[in-house]
Fold this sequence. Notes:
Layout: H1 2-9, E1 16-19, H2 22-29, E2 34-37, E3 50-56, H3 65-73, E4 76-87, H4 92-97, H5 115-124, E5 128-135, H6 138-152, H7 163-178, E6 184-190
Parallel strand pairs: 1-2, 3-4
Antiparallel strand pairs: 4-6, 5-6
Amino acid sequence: GTLMRELKRRGFSRLAGCDFSSHACDALRQTGIKVVQANIEENFPFADTFDAIIFDNVIEHLRDPLGALTTSARHLASGGRIILTMPNARAWDAKIFGRYWAGLQATRHIHIFAPESIARGAERCGLTVRTLHSLFDPAQWAFSFLNFLHSRFPASGAVRIPALPTLAFTPLAIAAQWYGKGGGIFAVLYK
């Protein structure tokens, strides 16, 4: 809901969203945004076409991400785009922290993507990749580090607020981003 509220604040007026959660839907409805409680994998909840459909850290949670992309592409207006963000399986922090990597979030993240898998998937869905790059995410480094610490010292009550680790890992996150190995993936796919 945060992204939808920010888009509305910036003047976008024709917004529509869907979520599994009735609580999230109710909160967005209070802002005047059209929102439907729905599972996008089972049924695309809108008959409209859209200039953009955004999956902001959603696609990795879906059982059939290619099916969701294909269905969503049918609802794009001419020249429309699908915008994706998700954890990056090729991220340096994924390699360094392994099973403690914050991007795994088992059992919530069913699929973990690499840039090349997004490119192949887009092609299979009849979409063209316009933009594909990694994202700067020092907080993911911090959460991965805290996951590691918690595994070593489970009873310590380790700090779960990553402010200090986020600052500490910022230089590594900058370097990872510079080399295209940032913690997330940003992709723009055109019809």
